[in-house]
Amino acid sequence: MKAPYSWIKEFLDIDLPAEKVAEKLNETGIETTVSKFGEYIPNIITVKILDVKKHPEKDKLFICKATDGTKEYEVITGASNVEEGKIAVLAKEGAVIQGKEIKPVNFGSFKSEGMFLSLEELGIEESSEGILLLPDDVSVGVDANDVLDLGKDDIFEIEITPNRGDALSIRGLAREIGAIFGIKRKEKFPLVSIAEEIPVNIEALTDKVYRYRGIIVKDVHVKESPWDIQLKLIKSGHSPINNIVDITNYILLQEGQPLHAFDLSKIKGKIIIRNAKDGEKIETLDGEEKELSSADIVIADEEKPLAIAGVIGGNNSKIEENTTEILLEAAVFDNISVRKTAKRLAINTDSSYRFERGVDIENLPNAQDKALELILKTAGGKALGEKDLYTKPYTPKEVKLKEITTKRILGELISKDESAEILNRLEIPTKTVEDGVISKIPAFRALDLEREIDLVEEVGRVKGFNNLKTTYPSVSIEGFDKSDEYLFQLRTRDFFKDNGLYEVVTYTFVSEDIYNIFDLPVPEIRIENYLLKIQSVMRDNLAVSLVGVLQENMKFQNKDLSIFEISSTFFKDFEEIRAGILLSGKFIDGFYYKKGKEEFSTSEKWDFLKAKGIFDSYFSLLGIEVEYKISELPYLHPYQSADIYVDEKKIGYIGKIHPKKASTLKVPQDTFLGELKLRYISRDIEDTRHPEDYLYEIYKNKPAVVFKELPKFPAVKRDLAFVVDETLELDKLIKELKRSSKLIEEVKLFDIYFIGEGKKSVAFNLTFRDENKSLSDEEVNEIVKNIVDNLKTKFKGLQLREG
Amino acid sequence: MDLKQELESLKDEVIAQINNAQDLEGLNKIRVEFLGKKGKLKSILKTLGKLSPEERKEIGQIANKLKDTLEQLIKEKETVLKEKALEQQLKNEQLDITLPSKWIKAGSSHPVISTLIEITEIFKSMGFSVKEGPEIEDEKYNFDMLNIPKDHPARDMQDTFFLNNGKVLRTHTSPVQIRTMLKQKPPISIVAPGRVYRKDADPTHSPMFHQIEGLLVDKNVTFKDLKGVLQIFLESVFGKDIPIRFRPSYFPFTEPSAEVDIGCTVCGGEGCRVCKGTGWLEILGCGMVDPNVFKAVNIDPDIYSGFAFGLGIERIAMLKYRITDIRLLFTNDIRFNKQFKGIR
User: Taking a C-beta distance cutoff of 8 angstroms, is the pair A292, A305 a contact?
Assistant: First the structure.
């Protein structure tokens, strides 16, 4: 909201610089910036337009004659709203408009001696249509800087928090500023008389209207408003329309009370405040047709809805130039009802904005009478009837603030006298009692101040939080938790980072296209009011996001990418924190080297075993043994992808992207994807399960490390080679080898050789050790023989390779 | 020529040859040729039998001395040659030590996560525990129990993403407060770092961003304590001399509420584009836990009090690293990410 300082000063004797006022408003809870209204422009005067003619040579241009009372000017303008008899602002030679100096200019064979100015050219509006036309009550031939108050007034730009609807008016700000600086606000009561000639028939069929007061005014003349009203509206960012509408806006800004004027001649029968009918339609003032529902409240006559209560008026009863009789409405509607309607219809008006935040029901007649006073003064006419529907008058709630509570919450005791003083300054009638103060909450703070704590804030904020000293809490450390899960996640993150991977952060919502490309079912959880369709599916894995990062980087020819992310994936009842990696291209972009017989390359490209190696290294860090089984994930290479298990619990996967998916996504074929399930996050507060198929749980529950004596007796080594089927997974053979004798300490694969005919030769380095004695050759021979016999029974076609 | 002379000339010959030896191989040949089992010295000594015992003794002594001398010389030469050979070998192994290395270089942190962790660690070291909650939340925890009733304008403060399962993407980390207080009785001192979501996207807003939430509940916790904790925190992040101001504000879940500004870190308070000319940067929101929130989680507001605070991480990361467009943080152009070497 924009509030001219000069307007506030009409209600407050204050002299302080606007900057000081803004600073204090900020410090006490109302966000305020301040700026000057326009800037002084030399050589601009008001002139009366005497004559307007079309330019004979140039289309769209007008040749005008204008006078400042003594001198006549020929002015050429392109403004289509230029009108004979009106007063305009002329920039004469020497004026500087938007950085350009005005000089006489020829348009065809005619010379323009100046320029009629628009609000935009005057530096007041961002953009405006047409030139500024001033009303009759402005003098001709005077410095336009004085008329427009350019460069003099200060405009506060106020942003309130949702609880401070009371500050959304000149009245409210005067009250607030007055309270801060200890200055009493002035009230100017309206002087009006309303005859009781015509009965005003109003009926409320809903309880969502708390007060409705209608006044009938006849014989009004709709025309432009006097300049002082127009200027205040312009300063407040409003466009003047006509005197009746301007006055309703004026009072809304000044008093915070939304008003509406209906053309009485268009109302059939009585005024009814009722729920709309489902599907009922109304064309609003902005020319749009809106479909209503039964939750909306309308102001209607006996035939049709006339306005959407508290939100916007209807076109069918609006004030027009020929309007002569009006119904002036002032009402207070239920804030929640107004909010629902405004939200659903996506209409945000000055009126709905204020109703949603609370309107001072007790100030309603005062505000409305001020409007009436102005109408009678500027539009003429007579007030002939009035009705005030106010069935449950406001009764102030009493709230007690104990002195001790200020100490308990703020940490500093504010005396009851000081509290009472602050609250009274805020126009909250407050008296002191033995142990504190009791406030009667006025209507303008009814929504905001209901409890003792609200008064603590009120007193605290006016006193200023910056004036409170700092202390340090003395808190019991009972319940301290060393945050193991967080530490586990940090350690995991450090591991991937330390091992050459770059951390990325991706959006957790993705497009369903990527799921279709990956041949995965699209997850069920979706954003209904998404910003972009491609950001509407809550992902259930990280791979869908990580390939997106690769695609993004391919745009910049960055196809060597080693990245990781630790983030959330989403499921029906829970969430999973996963670690995801994507490895593509080279991880060392080196060089080729040859010197004599020495020859090597320092480049390293990712392949399946290296990608798997990253995970294995991580498992080694955790001290966890895993098992790899071929994976069936549809987006991975069918023979180069593995699911990862710990004791039959699946905790992740690693694999090469399926070549077809790589082609579709236009990413390199040598791209590897892996994910690990780190942690389970329950959504249900009652769910205290700790599912075991997460690395954190596995890590936490693994047996403690206990030191084992170093071996006392020597080991014996033997190399064994077998011929086996080409497709045999060697991990099975290795496991069987380890199982086959207690004395086997280590089995190390050192050679694989594909012989052909579906066979391969595999060679192992075996280490034998007995903890209690030295093993003899004969003993080892015997063990080896048993092992080979055992393997032959377990693996069909296995043969020992001799020699 | 008698044996004596023969030995004498043998000596000269061998010494000359040793002196001339170029490498260990040549030296070895000399050893074999003269001192070996079938070497020249042996063959000379074979003729000793023809001499008288006196001569034999004399010549024998001379021969043995000669052998010792020669072996000593060979050994010395060997040392010299070995040294030379090693020198040569080292020379052959010369490598341009300025060549690019062959090892994985450590990766780097994302600036947002790094900042989030840095801030979490500061609070952790003050004794706060880390708590996390789900990102898909019940409106109950995200709004209702935080004293943000349905149809209250306060809900407009946070444009919400609604999901097809009737839940929402949490708009702040504050529901972790509720979850914690439902499970744990005071004293409570936690921070909750995490992702949050709002329906907003422009150069300064991202629909997904990060926050950290703090909550401290015990007997006798006051607003002055809140000021103390936040002052220490802000000084840890922005330096000892950072100006701090508390502006009263409104959050439904705290009363009184305040926003905390720091002196603009870009212009030092002079006024610039980043601080919109005010000299101040809004950095966090905070306040005393509203009694309605305590009631919702069955904590007696007459016995306990507490403070809560929340701050956006992106803004701090962007200030810290002078990042101008929030979208850069989530595009993951690796040329961006690789710039953040050496951060936590």
Answer: yes
Q: What pLDDT is recorded for position B1?
A: 55
- Closest-CA residue to A73 (of A93, A56, A98): A93
% helix, strand, coil for chain B, step of 5: 45, 20, 35
CATH class as words, domain B111-337: alpha beta
* CB atoms A477 and B291 under 8 Å: no
Spell out the alpha helix ranges (H) of A84-169.
144-148
Is pLDDT of B156 > 80?
no
Instruction: Identify residue B83 by its one-letter amino acid code.
Output: E
In the structure, what pLDDT confidence band is assigned to residue B290 with cuts at 50, 70 and 90? very high
Which residues have a Cβ under 8 Å from the Cβ of B71 and sit 6 or more positions away? B35
Contact A340 B151 (CB under 8 A): yes
* Contact list, B154 vs chain A (CB under 8 Å): 162-163
The domain limits of chain B are 3-92, 111-337
| Sequence-separated (6 or more) residues with CB below 8 Å from residue B243 | B262, B263, B269
Is the minimum CB–CB distance between B88 and chain A shorter than 8 Å? no
Tokens 């080694």 correspond to A620
**β strands within A37-187, DSSP E:** 44-54, 62-67, 72-77, 87-91, 96-97, 100-101, 105-107, 110-112, 115-116, 133-134, 154-159
- In chain B, the percentage of residues whose pLDDT exceeds 70 is 98
Cβ count near A620 (within 10 Å): 12
Phi, psi dihedrals of residue B3, rounded to the nearest 5°: -60, -40
Q: Please give the residue of chain A at the shortest CA–CA distance from B328.
A: A505
> pLDDT value at position A77?
92
Question: What does DSSP assign to residue A403?
Answer: H
**A299 beta partners:** A273, A307
Write the CB contacts of B64 (distance below 8 Å, at least 6 apart in sequence). Answer: none
- Rounded to a whole number of angstroms, the CA Rg of chain B reads 43
* Per-residue tokens: A594: 């040859």
Which residue, among A738, A698, A542, A560, has the nearest Cα to A618 in the 3D structure?
A: A698
Owner of token pair 């053309």: A263
Amino acid, single-letter form, for residue A451: R
CATH architecture of the domain formed by A44-148? Beta Barrel (2.40)
Other Cβ atoms closer than 10 A to A639: 10
Q: What length is written for chain A?
A: 803
Model pLDDT, residue A803 = 58
How sure is the predictor about B204, in pLDDT bands with cuts at 50, 70 and 90? confident
Helix (H, G, I), strand (E, B) or coil at A532: coil
> Which regions of chain A carry the CATH code 3.30.70.380?
716-801
Residue written as token pair 């939430």: B213
CATH 3.30.56.10 domain extents, chain A = 2-37+154-181, 397-462
Q: Which residues pair with A740 in a beta bridge?
A: none
Residue of B93, B94, B151 to mutate, interface with A, max A Cβ within 10 Å: B151
CB A146 within 8 A of CB A98: no
Query: Touching check for B268 and chain A: CB below 8 Å?
Result: no
CATH fold of A716-801 reads: Alpha-Beta Plaits (3.30.70)
- E-strand ranges in A517-665 read 537-538, 561-570, 574-584, 586-588, 592-595, 598-601, 604-605, 627-630, 636-646, 649-657
ipTM of the assembly? 0.89
Contacts B222 to A, Cβ<8 Å: 407-412, 471
pLDDT digits 0-9 by tens, B75-107: 999 999 999 989 999 998 888 999 999 999 999
> Would you tell me how many other CB atoms lie within 10 Å of the CB of residue B93?
9
In a 3-state reduction of DSSP, which class is residue A211?
A: strand
- Residue A212 β-bridge partners: A331, A389
In chain A, CATH 3.30.930.10 covers 484-701
CA A324 to chain centroid: 47
**Bridge partner list, A398:** A440
Class of the domain covering A397-462: alpha beta
The answer, yes or no, to whether the previous bond of B187 is cis (omega within 30 of 0) is yes
